[in-house]
Design brief:
rod-shaped
Length: 141
């Protein structure tokens, strides 16, 4: 017996349909395969969104990294400049101290001398009073 192509297709389809009807598990599997295809489609869409998000995050990260590096470099420059300025201030203060210290010491010496003169003036004044008292006392006698 020889079958033509159309008859063969119909026969195969019939056998497959009967097998599906006889095996509910196969029907469930077909249904699950359909669901899996749908899930795969959703996952592909999610993966595409994630790729876009990752590209966006990478772009933001690159901008942030450049900005951070720029800020760090500016901060480093500022710290270096501040260090140089502090050295200049220190040098200037040392010069001022060199200039002011001798005058400060002279000023302290003048103060001491003035106090000594004042003390001497007081002593001389006290002696003058004593002398006047004695001389005045002898003159009165």
């Amino acid at each position: 017996m020889q079958l033509d192509a159309t008859t063969l297709k119909v026969t195969i389809k019939t056998v497959v349909n009967e097998a599906i009807d006889e095996h509910p598990t196969i029907q469930r599997m077909g249904s699950e395969i359909g669901e899996l295809k749908s899930d795969v489609s959703v996952l592909k869409s999610d993966v595409s969104e994630l790729k876009t998000d990752v590209r966006d995050l990478n772009s933001r990260f690159e901008v942030h990294a450049r900005t951070t590096n720029y800020s760090i470099n500016k901060l480093h420059d500022s710290v270096h400049k501040m260090s140089v300025d502090m050295e200049e201030i220190k040098s200037g203060l040392n010069k001022v101290i060199e200039i002011v210290m001798p005058s400060k010491i002279r000023e302290e010496q003048y103060d001491r001398m003035e106090r000594r003169v004042e003390n001497h003036d007081h002593r001389i004044g006290a002696l003058e009073v004593k002398i006047r008292d004695r001389v005045g006392g002898h003159e009165r006698s």
